[in-house]
Specification:
Helix content: over 70%
Largest sheet: 2 strands, antiparallel
Low-confidence stretches: 60-65, 68-84
Number of helices: 2
Order of helices and strands: HEEH
Number of strands: 2
CATH class: Mainly Alpha
Mean pLDDT: 79
Number of domains: 1
């Protein structure tokens, strides 16, 4: 393989490495967002739990935990309807967040493995280029 072909291969590998690194950054940003969502979910759950003595049933606005359907208001019990939110709902939502995080983590590990492969191939191509240049100057001098 000539110097020009090796340089072209090196440029392609450098581009591939940059693409992989960008994908890893995007995944890390998504994981950070998931961590923030889990924190908000835990905070809402804890806030509602401290408003009630029974740890298995939480009362509060239905909108506190996203994804829940607000029950119909019961007439005669006050202006703000209180919706019981079971602890199982919190656990289901946290399980979803954790599953997404695990999926993103596995994808990140896969991309990091690909990055290491590209780096090793990049080093091999650089050695080929260096040897080709060295051979070229030996014949001249």
């Amino acid at each position: 393989m000539g110097v020009a072909a090796s340089q072209g291969r090196k440029m392609f590998l450098t581009q591939r490495k940059s693409d992989i690194e960008f994908k890893v950054q995007v995944i890390n940003q998504r994981r950070t967002t998931l961590a923030e969502q889990a924190s908000q979910l835990a905070r809402a759950f804890a806030n509602q739990m401290y408003q009630n003595d029974d740890p298995t049933v939480i009362t509060g606005p239905a909108a506190a935990l996203p994804g829940l359907i607000a029950p119909a208001p019961i007439s005669g019990l006050g202006a703000v309807p209180q919706a019981p939110i079971a602890q199982g709902s919190y656990e289901i939502q946290m399980t979803r967040v954790q599953a997404l995080d695990k999926e993103l983590e596995l994808r990140s590990v896969d991309l990091q493995t690909q990055n290491k492969e590209v780096e090793s191939e990049l080093e091999a191509v650089q050695k080929v280029i260096d040897k080709a240049i060295e051979r070229g100057f030996k014949t001249l001098g």
